TrEMBL record, chain A:
A GO molecular-function annotation: monooxygenase activity
The entry's keywords: Monooxygenase, Oxidoreductase
SUPFAM superfamilies listed in its UniProt record: Ferritin-like (SSF47240)
Gene3D superfamilies xref list: Ribonucleotide Reductase, subunit A (1.10.620.20)
Enzyme Commission number(s) of this protein: 1.14.13.227
Source organism (scientific name): Marihabitans asiaticum
Pfam families: Phenol_Hydrox, YHS
Keyword Oxidoreductase: yes
Organism ancestry: Bacteria, Bacillati, Actinomycetota, Actinomycetes, Micrococcales
Residue span(s) of domain YHS: 423-459
Superkingdom of the organism of origin: Bacteria
Name of the protein this chain belongs to: propane 2-monooxygenase
The reaction(s) this protein catalyses: propane + NADH + O2 + H(+) = propan-2-ol + NAD(+) + H2O
UniProtKB/TrEMBL annotation, chain B:
Keywords (A to Z) from UniProt: Monooxygenase, Oxidoreductase
Record protein name field: propane 2-monooxygenase
SUPFAM superfamilies assigned: Ferritin-like
Assigned EC number: 1.14.13.227
The organism of origin for this protein: Marihabitans asiaticum
Alphabetical list of InterPro entries matching this protein: Ferritin-like_SF, Phenol_Hydrox, RNR-like
GO MF annotations, alphabetized: monooxygenase activity
Catalytically driven reaction(s): propane + NADH + O2 + H(+) = propan-2-ol + NAD(+) + H2O
Pfam families, per the entry: Phenol_Hydrox (PF02332)
Length: 522, 335
């Protein structure tokens, strides 16, 4: 007799999709008896989180391995076809301007390595969680993150062939001063216990702030003729929505398992909101200053993606569990009018030691900034740039002497001002075991004082330079140690990328002007 | 005939990334290479892990097996994400086609009794062994040193979930569209004497914190079990009227052959390391031999039960021979 699943007269034996999925994924665990369960999952107790029933984890996606592979393979086929076509057709010449690529340089140097870290540590969760549901979800995310890392590298690989600043990103991530901002952020998460990592990355990074972190890069690409990055962004979207759902499921799971988890999770939300938010400082300046064709201002982006969607939406839902909006969120809101300007002004002055270039905003660009920031730009920042314009006209483009002091926690230069007062620099001091540590804000100070024994370990690039651990005491020695090449750093106007761009655009224009008779079609 | 497209010719400034060019020269590099080499951060780790303050976030001391240069190991399959999922998509599609055929022809119902018992009592419970493999390889994907080795481990971990699902689907089909046999298989896994050695080995290997040793143990058991079930018994099935078994076995066998390629390449890299080669070879001889001895011990009751059910299938002989070969490969001695 053959099985006939379509045969409706037979007893309803066929499994429902849900039952089938559970049979394929859930039944695999067993209670060990040759070793202790605590020995098998040794990291689950020390953070204080209590899980009573791992089976209560709801799989947000019922993806079996065959379906996953099929779907992902089809997406990659389409993505790589776009990358190949773009490379073959010298698509990079259609960008708005070569200066746009500064945003992508920061992306490969500062974001791609985070994808890699996420891959490794979701594998840790896939090993160390005691429930098969969250383990499988974590394993899927672990290999998704390999995908994102690699598709980013492959997307930007073609630009690396023609432009500066992309070529040495892994070493730069480990060494260069501004990249210790994302590096210290992610390594903070990697060094946490499994549940804090889940909240730090799965929830805060992938859910709470993902639209602020990733969407500006991807939208920037579509507005600036960067078809490969835009295609990558779309291609990663369905993975990201799975990751966001995982992050949300994770927080609900922890909160529902035990009431005692609530204050612990709240503390992590408070910490990781501010930690992630400080990383977005790099995104804010990119959005307002690095895109030749603007998408939206940082302020608009913050209001839409964070204030409306998260404070207005998510946290209203989480209130049910007794979760309140993150500590120090008011300080972040107060900063939205000034953040990008302060950060870019700093990067502008220190880009002689960076793997990207900067340039003073044009008059047109400044008018856009005035419109986008009516309350702050003309008062505080236009005068700086007008003065700088005179310097440039006099042949004296400004670079800062020396190196900036960095915040002990977020490692951003100490450039921020007091909440609500754009003219007074904020500087916080904390003492721990006889040493003074400096932080940039109330948020970072609070984070430091919660775990001083962690943050005093920080590898602060500027301290390290002064201690002679970075290739030597002089700037050229440090830049060599960073692996920077001629054209990577400094001012964009007159840089290697700028000169090449003008030459290539000139050739393209000349080609168009001369009709070619040997065209195809013969 | 060829037509000529006129395109603007632009001289590239460089052919690949600096870290790739340092190793292989400034020439175009494959996507596997650009997406894998040197992508793991390696210095200036900011904080010690709270879960193990004696180590760094990434640390090469998580195994006794080390490489002077982590990237002397390359996956011979050159799997980065895209070719990996593409290969597995084809693999699972092929299995689905076989299973459809098996179900359409009612081949599982027509299995001789002994073969049905082998599947239900001994093969289906191994979905739990696959689950153990998933945990072991996830540990390796996290604690290994260097992105080429951890990448291979992550894909292999994912494969184990896929294997468990293949076995589960066979179990659902064999159970007439129900999960009854999967539930029974779990009881077999938990309580049947022929499976207890395997379960003990699985549990003990999951808690092994040295990923290199854990891999050796998992691999030793795999080599005995996969060879026995999907090569040796595949031949037996063909001659004893159990085509359903053979149709399933081919897919497990092809996965196994593919999976062994990266593991063998890793053993080779360990052995051929310019500085640590001799140390690694001695470690492989010592721990490899011990792993095979344990594997033979735990798989023997399993094989003996197969011989019982099939009335003499030389299963025990087969694993004994395989174990001797694997042991010799590790120790460098003639088999």
């Amino acid at each position: 007799m053959t099985l006939a699943p379509e045969n409706k007269t037979k007893k309803a034996k066929k499994l429902s999709m849900k039952a089938r999925y559970e049979a394929l994924t859930r039944g695999l665990d067993w209670e060990p008896s040759y070793v202790e369960k605590d020995e098998m999952f040794p990291h689950l107790d020390y953070e204080g989180i209590k899980i009573h029933d791992w089976a209560a984890w709801e799989d947000p996606f019922r993806l079996t391995i065959d379906a996953y592979c099929k779907y992902q393979a089809e997406k990659d086929k389409r993505l790589y076809a776009v990358l190949d076509g773009f490379a073959q057709g010298q698509g990079h010449l259609g960008l708005t301007d070569a200066s746009y690529l500064n945003a992508m340089k920061i992306f490969i140097q500062g974001v791609t390595p985070l994808e890699y870290g996420a891959h490794r540590h979701f594998a840790y969760l896939a090993r160390h969680f005691a429930g098969p549901g969250p383990r499988f979800a974590a394993l899927c995310q672990s290999i998704d993150e390999i995908r994102h890392m690699q598709t980013e590298i492959h997307t930007l690989s073609n630009y690396n062939k023609y432009y500066s600043g992309f070529h040495n990103w892994p070493e730069e991530y480990d060494r260069v001063w501004y990249l210790s901002v994302p590096k210290s952020f992610f390594e903070d998460a990697l060094s946490c216990g499994p549940f804090e990592f889940l909240i730090a990355v799965g929830f805060s990074f992938e859910y709470l702030l993902t639209n602020l972190l990733f969407v500006p890069f991807m939208s920037g690409s579509s507005f600036n003729g960067d078809l490969p990055t835009m295609t990558f962004g779309f291609s990663a979207q369905s993975d990201e929505s799975r990751h966001m759902t995982l992050g949300l499921e994770a927080i609900k799971f922890l909160l529902e398992q035990d009431e005692a988890n609530v204050p612990i999770v709240q503390g992590w939300i408070d910490k990781w909101f501010w930690r992630s938010y400080r990383v977005t400082a790099l995104v804010a300046q990119m959005l307002d200053y690095m895109l030749p064709r603007k998408v939206m201002s940082w302020k608009e982006s913050f209001e839409l993606y964070f204030e409306e969607q998260m404070l207005g939406g998510l946290f209203e839902d989480l209130a049910f569990y007794g979760i309140t909006p993150p500590r120090h969120v008011e300080d972040a809101i107060k900063e939205k009018e000034i953040l990008s300007h302060q950060v870019y002004w700093t990067l502008y002055q220190f880009s002689f030691a960076a793997a990207f270039t900067t340039s003073a905003p044009s008059d047109e660009h400044m008018d856009w900034l005035s419109q986008a920031y009516p309350d702050t730009f003309d008062t505080h920042y236009r005068p700086l740039w007008e003065k700088e314009k005179k310097n440039i006209e006099a042949g004296g483009r400004h670079f800062a002497p020396g190196l900036p002091q960095l915040c002990q926690v977020c490692q951003v230069p100490m450039l921020f001002t007091e909440p609500g007062d754009a003219t007074t620099f904020a500087q916080r001091e904390s003492e721990f075991e006889g040493e003074i540590y400096h932080t940039c804000s109330n948020g970072c100070q609070w984070i430091f004082e919660r775990e001083p024994e962690k943050y005093r370990q920080a590898w602060l690039p500027v301290h390290q330079i002064y201690q002679g651990n970075c290739g030597g005491p002089t700037v050229p020695e440090v830049l060599e140690w960073y692996g920077l090449q001629d054209g990577d750093a400094g001012e964009y106007i007159g840089s290697r990328d700028h000169r090449n761009w003008q030459a290539w655009q000139g050739e393209a224009a000349a080609d168009t002007a001369t009709p070619d008779e040997t065209k195809a079609g013969a | 005939m060829q037509y000529e497209l006129k395109t603007q010719v632009i001289e590239p400034q460089r052919q690949t990334f600096t870290h790739i060019a340092k190793r292989y020269g400034d020439k175009p590099a494959s996507r596997y290479i650009e997406g894998s080499i040197d992508v793991q951060p390696k210095e200036h780790f900011q904080y010690r892990p709270t879960w193990d303050p004696t180590r760094e976030i990434y640390d090469d001391s998580y195994s006794v097996f080390r490489l002077t240069d982590a990237y002397s190991y390359l996956d011979p399959r050159q799997y980065y994400y895209a070719p990996y999922v593409t290969a597995r998509s084809g693999h699972h599609e092929a299995f689905a086609t076989s299973l459809e055929y098996i179900e359409a022809r009612g081949l599982l119902e027509r299995l001789p009794d002994g073969w049905r018992s082998v599947l239900a009592e001994l093969v289906l419970p191994l979905r739990h062994l696959e689950s153990a493999g998933q945990l072991i390889l996830c540990g390796m994907a996290r604690f290994g040193w260097g992105a080429t080795v951890t990448q291979s481990a992550a894909y292999s971990a994912f494969d184990r979930v896929g294997n468990a699902q293949v076995l589960s689907r066979v179990g659902i089909a064999l159970g007439g569209g129900t999960t009854d046999l999967l539930a029974e298989a779990k009881e077999h896994w938990l309580h049947d004497a022929p499976l207890q050695g395997l379960r003990r080995m699985a549990e003990e290997t999951i808690v092994e914190t040295d990923w290199g040793l854990a891999l050796l143990r998992l691999d030793a058991v795999d080599r005995l079990v996969y060879d026995l079930l999907y090569q040796h018994l595949d031949d037996e099935a063909v001659v004893s009227g159990a085509p359903a078994y053979s149709l399933v076995a081919q897919h497990m066998a092809s996965w196994f052959a593919d999976n062994r390629r990266w593991i063998d390449a890793l053993y080779t890299a360990w052995r051929e390391d310019p500085e640590l080669g001799a140390t690694n070879a001695a470690l492989l001889a010592e721990h490899g031999a011990a792993a095979v001895d344990t594997a033979l011990e735990v798989v023997t009751p399993f094989a003996a039960r197969i011989d019982e059910l099939l009335g003499g299938s030389s299963a025990v002989d087969r694993i004994t021979t395989t174990a001797a070969e694997v042991r010799a490969a590790h120790t460098g001695a003639a088999a």
